[in-house]
Design a protein that fits this description.
The complex is a heterodimer. By secondary structure, chain A is mainly beta. Chain A has one helix and four strands. Chain A has a four-stranded antiparallel sheet with strand order 1-4-3-2, with no helix packed on it. The longest helix of chain A has 6 residues. Chain B has one domain: Aldolase class I (TIM Barrel). In chain B, helix 3 runs parallel beside helix 10. The chains are: A mainly beta, B alpha/beta.
């Protein structure tokens, strides 16, 4: 699991393909607001049962495909995260 | 023992006749101290009229998001500010998903699309996908692509789709509070055509949309009148951006009461755990439901949200000594 993938919500075993090296997530990957502002406790809890919807690096809404035992989320700028 | 449970023991367990709306309401209104007895009776009914096997299913979204309808619970409506973006699944990925599902021991694989009804493009994609799955994967294929024309019903039968899901979602009297872009009756008409085609009817809904307990009983009675082969039971998982995003999830005990009540209304149907059980029931409640009338599960992830790992549910079934229904038993 890479550490710069998904903002404040730990997705467990997610892996980002093509992530910019060394850039920390700035946006909450669930609600799309700044990860460092406000309370994202509910977002973290919800992420146990949800894939990310926003790119942690640029806030763009991602194209997300949920499959029976996996998911993949694609940001046009920052690539794919999957688990 | 409450009178309604005595009545259900004779009427439902012994004679196989489901409770009517008033009976379902009485079960839904049982005080907490009688919930274990209701679940135990529902479990006995399930074992008597369905047997110990559990049907396992996986579902996948062929077309996600961008739906023109306004189902207030759904993050895939294009009318709300949901973060869910439109995306199509390609055929190789669809077949791979079916293979993954089959590996869990599932006998059912349901292909779902977020649409009002299928257009030519979706029907072509479905035809290609179903053919590819049937050629490569040993699993029964079901579909859920909205409201159908008679021509489309016939086409699905010809493709080899053996079961069609079309949820009524909630009771007739509450439906206009949940959906305004089409009617409950339009859904019923699709279900009628599906039944007449010979495909198995899969029809359930979501509890916790704001319906009253009386309306929950009304819903169970309407489903019993439809007499579907399968009833998927969802519990609202409030989705960001939808009109129901601020609703509370159903209380665990109310969910279990509903499971028992729906089983006592429909002793022979496949009653399936679907979405929302992770939030509403957790691990302990999931177990209680399987010992309270449930005899089928969706394993793994849902359409836009994640479920428990398939292995967790399969281990639970093993622990409960409930065999997974084999494919040979469904043919």
């Amino acid at each position: 699991m890479s550490s710069d993938t998904t903002g404040p919500a730990p997705p467990g075993t997610s892996t980002r393909v093509g992530a910019p090296a060394g850039t920390a997530a700035f946006w909450c990957d669930r609600c799309g607001t700044p990860a460092g502002e406000g309370d994202h406790t509910a977002c973290r809890a919800a992420r146990q049962w949800e894939p990310p919807r926003h790119c942690g690096h640029c806030r763009r809404r991602m194209k997300v495909q949920v499959l029976p035992i996996s998911w993949a989320a694609v940001c046009v700028e920052h690539g794919e995260t999957r688990a | 023992m409450p009178e309604i449970l005595d009545q259900a023991r004779t009427q439902v367990l012994e004679n196989g006749v489901g409770l009517d709306e008033a009976g379902v309401l009485a079960v839904l209104n049982l005080p907490d101290e009688h919930l274990p007895a209701a679940l135990q009776l529902a479990h006995e009914v399930r074992m008597r009229w369905c047997g110990p096997e559990v049907e396992v299913e996986g579902i996948v979204s062929l077309k996600t998001g961008g739906c023109p309808e306004d189902c207030h619970f759904c993050s895939q409506s294009g009318l709300f500010t949901s973060p869910v973006r439109a995306v199509w699944l390609d055929i190789p990925s669809l077949v791979e998903a079916a293979k993954q599902t089959a590996k869990t021991g599932a006998t059912e694989f349901c292909i779902v699309a977020a649409v009002r009804g299928p257009d030519d493009r979706l029907m072509r994609q479905l035809r290609e996908g179903v053919a590819a799955i049937r050629a490569e994967v040993d699993i029964q294929v079901a579909a859920s692509v909205g409201m159908l024309t008679q021509e489309q019903v016939d086409e699905l039968v010809e493709m080899g789709v053996h079961r069609y899901n079309h949820n009524l979602e909630t009771c007739r009297s509450y439906f206009p509070n949940v959906v305004t872009t089409h009617s409950w009756e339009e859904r019923w008409e699709t279900l009628r055509m599906v039944r007449e085609s010979g495909m198995e009817v899969c029809c359930g809904g979501i509890l916790g949309l704001g319906e009253t307990v009386e309306q929950r009983a009304e819903f169970a009675a309407q489903l019993a009148e439809l007499d579907p082969h399968e009833v998927p039971l969802n519990f609202l998982n409030p989705r960001p951006g939808t009109p129901l995003e601020d609703r509370s999830v159903v209380e665990g005990k109310d969910a279990l009461r509903a499971i028992a009540a729906f089983r006592l209304a429909m002793p022979r149907t496949i009653l399936r755990y679907a979405g929302g059980r992770e939030l509403t029931l957790g691990d302990l409640g999931t177990r209680s439901g399987l010992l309270g009338g449930i005899n089928a599960v969706i394993v793994g992830n849902y359409l836009t949200t994640l479920g428990r790992p398939a292995t967790t549910d399969l281990e639970l079934l093993q622990d409960l000594k409930m065999p997974v229904k084999a494919l040979s038993a469904t043919l």
